[in-house]
Write a structure and sequence with these properties.
Subcellular location: Cell membrane
Pfam families: MFS_1 (PF07690)
Keywords: Cell membrane, Membrane, Transmembrane, Transmembrane helix, Transport
CATH architecture of the largest domain: Up-down Bundle
Structural class: mainly alpha
Number of domains: 2
Number of helices: 16
Radius of gyration: 21 Å
Membrane topology: Multi-pass membrane protein
Number of strands: 0
Helix content: over 70%
Order of helices and strands: HHHHHHHHHHHHHHHH
CATH superfamily of the largest domain: MFS general substrate transporter like domains
Mean pLDDT: 81
CATH topology of the largest domain: Growth Hormone, Chain: A
Organism: Aminobacter anthyllidis
CATH class of the largest domain: Mainly Alpha
Low-confidence stretches: 1-10, 387-395
Oligomer: single chain
Largest sheet: none
């Protein structure tokens, strides 16, 4: 090992990166806990499925509404102060939700939960992109995506330990949000002042700079949320048992988490744009083969790879964001990603559900396949015409 390589290794801010990843992971645990917990409680109260769904939509709506104001708030308040303040406000909102066991009271409170939680997520992710060395960005962002996916999975699993009665499950989420603030406080001295450079940029300004990246995030969100929410309907139409469908969804989520490091390494070797195109085409292939392998043993590796490839679209978009932007524009880009993810999650499921009503259960792979095909065409067009600033060169 040369002296230069040793120095380079020492300069990599591993402690800071670990702290930021831990922040977002704990945040993911808290978020992953609240969705099923509140749905279970409302279901026990006899709330209709429509109202439960509307209540659940309030949190991503809070994400969407808060996203445009995050860049401006970060400039005025400071990234660290804003993240810590939001962690405290999110915890306080969850306390209020625990005190008010009523679906109508929860509507505005769940909106506020999303509104306060989103800046914490955006700032942490921006920090990670800012301090990650370019030579290792693929692997580190792949690891980040994998760990965060695991955090979302741990949230629902924790209900098996603490149950859904009384304060214990709420305390898990409340403590998690407060721990996020403490971790931010601990890593702040290791963080660069943000934003260090670049002109002030809004989400609208970022859209003009990178519309294809936002479309990629939208597609990834719509794909994941649609499949998780409607795959049970698809399986039931084909006579599959609930247990088998649940296992297939678990396999999809496992691929979602376990394949991101491999895809990140692939991005370092081939370039993030080529790897994104690979992920899009692999997701499209999964849509095409799903009707033919659903009843065969091949369905298990197919959904595993499908999960990795579809979420890999988002991972590649993150890598592109870190490669291309810094400072104010990086913050605006992360806020734009949060907005695009929220819109994709809200739009994807109803649109696909309507397609399934029109043409039957095969509307699921058809709708997802059309979204992937549209993204693939845009990627290829952007590459050939040199538009959208997509960089194909490997690191």
């Amino acid at each position: 090992m040369t002296a230069d390589s040793t120095t380079s290794r020492r300069q990599i801010p591993w402690a800071a990166m670990a702290g930021v990843i831990a922040t977002v992971t704990v945040f993911a645990v808290a978020q992953g806990l609240t969705y099923p917990l509140l749905s279970f409680i409302l279901s026990r109260q006899g709330t209709t499925a429509g109202l439960i769904g509307l209540s659940a939509a309030m949190t991503p709506l809070g994400f969407i509404v808060s996203s445009p104001v995050i860049p401006g708030l970060t400039r005025r308040v400071g990234a660290a102060r804003l993240a810590i303040l939001c962690s405290v406000l999110a915890a306080a909102t969850l306390v209020a939700i625990a005190l008010m066991q009523d679906v109508w009271a929860w509507m505005p409170l769940r909106f506020l939960l999303g509104f306060f939680a989103n800046p914490l997520y955006v700032i942490s992710e921006t920090w990670l992109l800012a301090i990650t060395p370019a030579s290792r960005r693929g692997r580190i962002m792949g690891l980040y995506s994998a760990i965060v996916s695991g955090g979302f999975a741990i949230g629902p699993l924790s209900l098996g330990l603490v149950g859904i009665e009384g304060w214990p499950p709420f305390m898990v989420g409340i403590v998690a949000f407060l721990v996020c603030g403490l971790i931010v406080l601990a890593v702040v001295p290791r963080m660069p002042k943000m934003p260090p450079d670049g002109e002030a940029t809004s989400i609208g300004g970022f859209f003009a700079l990178a519309p294809l990246l936002l479309f990629a995030v939208f597609t990834a969100a719509a794909f994941e949320q649609t499949l998780i929410s409607l795959f049970a309907v698809y399986g039931a139409a084909l006579g599959s048992t609930e247990g088998r469908v649940a296992s297939l969804i678990t396999s999809f989520i496992a691929g979602n988490a376990l394949l991101q490091i491999l895809l990140g390494r692939m991005a370092e070797q081939l370039g993030s744009t080529r790897t994104m195109l690979f992920c899009v085409l692999a997701s499209l292939a999964g849509c095409l083969v799903l009707p033919h392998v659903f009843d065969a043993w091949l369905i298990w590796p197919v959904v595993f790879l499908w999960g990795g490839a579809s979420f890999g679209i988002y991972t590649m978009a993150l890598i592109q964001l870190g490669e291309r932007f810094t400072g104010h524009t990086l913050i605006a880009g992360n806020a734009g990603f949060a907005l695009a993810w929220g819109v994709g999650g809200i739009v994807g499921s109803p649109t696909t559900g309507f397609a399934m009503q029109l043409i039957g259960h095969q509307g699921l792979p058809l709708a997802l396949g059309l979204a992937c095909a549209a993204l693939a065409v845009c990627l290829l067009a952007g590459r050939w015409r040199g538009r959208f600033g997509m960089d194909d060169a490997p690191e």
